[in-house]
Amino acid sequence: MESLVNLESVSYAFPGSGGRKALEKVDLQIQEGDYVLLCGGSGSGKTTLAYIVAGLIPHLLGGNLEGKATVAGVDISLRGPSELLPHVGLVIQNVDAQLFNPSVADEMTFGLQGLGMNEEEIQSRVSAMAHSLGIGHLMERSPQELSGGEKKLVALASIASMPCRLLIVDEPLAHLDEESAKRVRGVLRELNSQGRTLLVMEHRVQGLIEDVSRCVLLDCGHKVYDGPAAGAGEELVKRGLIPVYGERKRRGKRDEETVLEGRGLYHRRDGLLLLKGVDVKVRRGETLAILGPNGAGKTTLIRHFNGLLRPTEGEVYVMGERVGRRDPSEMSGKVGLVFQNPNDQFFRLKVEEEILASPQAKKRCTESRLEEICETMGIRDLLGRSPFKLSEGEKRRVAIASILAMEPEILVLDEPTSGQDGRARMALARTLDDLAQRGQTTVVVTHDMGFAMAVADRILEMRAGKVVSEVLL
Amino acid sequence: MKKVDPRIRVILGILTVVMVLLTQRRWLLAVELGALLGGLLVLSRARELLSYLRISGPMVAVVVLVGWVSFSWQDAMEMGLRFMALFLVSFLLFQSLTVEELAQALKGLGVPWSFCFILATAMRYVSLLGRKLKSIVDAQRSRGIDLRPRLRNIPNLMALAVPFLVQCFQLSEDLAVALEARGFVRKVERRRPPRRITLWEYGLVVGWIVLTFVVAYLGEAT
Q: Which of A250, A336, A388, A409 has the fewest CB atoms below 10 angstroms from its CB?
């Protein structure tokens, strides 16, 4: 039987890469009905492979494609993505770009109209898919108003409503909390059970590995494992894709001095109460993790710590001083906030310049301190490189280094594991442990329970704008 | 206003712009400005207007200043009134049209579908880009980069411009990939045919054309 996807000795180099191969001699056969997990660290070539199978490479992105690649018997080097559309549907990682129509209903009909279906058939397919994925109530809403989990479901529905035999889904679980991730996983299982062939790229492999029939592992553009999912666990651990956090180093005696305190914090925005009387204390030298699903109010809470947001009611005190109406730029020497997306802060040409870009860092960061930060963050070799060309894990470490260079009393990290592969998460956990050893006070906001357990001395759980539990580790 | 076909609304908007540009008398410009403000009151858009004026106000002030320095205060007044009226026309037009209606109207007026689609898509991304910009501002302020509106902070705007442009380019690249992968280039009629334009809507356009000629004539005659 002919494979639905057949790649034979496929190599690819992006234009302008100087011939450096993003994929090297990859063989891959996918049969009808397979559910394949394609995993690997950042920069391993997962998305490149997806773009080849979808026909975007070489037709849209150019570059040099070698080897033989066919999908449903169609030679990819001869046919572009629009001609492959009846066979292949692709959901890209960036859902904001994927969803470009004015309403969810328009998203779902877009591809079907492109296939030339009649109105009756379109409506029947759309309503069946909306019902199957449980998104019927969202049909008239703008995709931009939806939550992260809902956007992922709509993106999936807009592709799955087409009669494509193969669905390629790039990082469906990225940035989702556990509940949303479970829902998306359920939808993928459902689509596979309906007979769809699935190729899912993901580096958050725990959980998903139980759903798939086969696992393909890429490393630096090479295929290093291709076999049943049941036997892939050991390889995934060995290659650091499933993080195994080490023992935490012994910490000193707990300090009871409170360096940051939020008292009775309420925050109202657009008529919604996002914080409902939150009381929080951070003690000197501790690592506090704030856990909770998306929309629990975690990010809203930490934005009060440096004055980015002002509470509707309540007060925040840092080192005993009221934050009040002080500007965040004045607070940066005391509270250093690292944002979820490191790309929000990079604007210099070299990593070293980026680390020393802030006025506080220029004032406080001596050469020896810079050395120490680079040592702790493991970024010494990156100093001369452009921050824009780093891997996601490296970007995160540089972003943290740039905040540490300001020598803040309290380091606050917003979702530091978001979009990071297992290796990067383990490296980050080690770094936070090192910082804790040196007495750094840290607050980590995350929905990654494993990471929180690995780094925190204390965990606060938030739901619906309230702290619902506190655990001392 | 919502009952009027979007194509007619676009035509009326274009005619009003022509009318403002043809107006030669200051008192007539003031009347037009008053009528436009009246239109805004009818649409109950006072709040949106205030935020719009916050953006356009400084630009109008610059135009008046340049006019005063270069010509005379009378010319500066006229330039300011005309500029303000043009701003209000565009504000009214965009308040009365959704992005989707604008795209449909342009397509109905013969503009190629792919152009209308791209225009509408670009406009839909304005709010997303606004959120991205806000996030960049917050990230830089949290690093101690002072972005408060002061002259000495102008060099700090680089810290906003670079990440914002990088993210815009990234988004446009991802959007191109998504459009291509979802068959944007497939030559298929993607929207239902537009409704028929009614007789009174034709009458409205004819009336507006007559009004435009009257305004142009008044400028010449007085």
A: A250
Contact flag B158-A347 (C-beta cutoff 8 Å): yes
Q: Which amino acid would we find at residue B180? A: E
What pTM does this model have? Answer: 0.83
What angle separates helix B6-22 from helix B73-96, to the nearest 10 degrees?
A: 180
The full set of domains in chain A, from first to last, is: 5-238 (3.40.50.300), 258-472 (3.40.50.300)
Q: Are A102 and B177 within 8 A, CB to CB?
A: no
CA distance A312 to B103: 41
The A residues from 276 to 335 touching B (CB cutoff 8 Å) are: 303, 306, 308, 327-330, 332-333
Token pair 């993106």: residue: A155
ipTM over 0.95: no
What are the pLDDT digits (tens) for A265-323?
Answer: 999 988 889 999 999 999 999 999 999 988 899 999 999 999 999 999 999 999 999 99
Rounded Cα gap, residues A194 and A213, in angstroms: 15
- Alpha-carbon gap, residue A52 to A2, rounded angstroms: 19
Interchain pair B184, A343: CB under 8 A:
no
Q: Is B41 helix (H, G, I), strand (E, B) or coil?
A: helix
The answer to whether B144 contacts A345, with C-beta atoms less than 8 Å apart, is no
Q: Within 13 Å and on the Cβ side, how many CA atoms surround A399?
A: 28
Q: Which residues of B touch A90 (CB under 8 A)?
A: 181-182
Tokens for A372, please give them: 């120490």
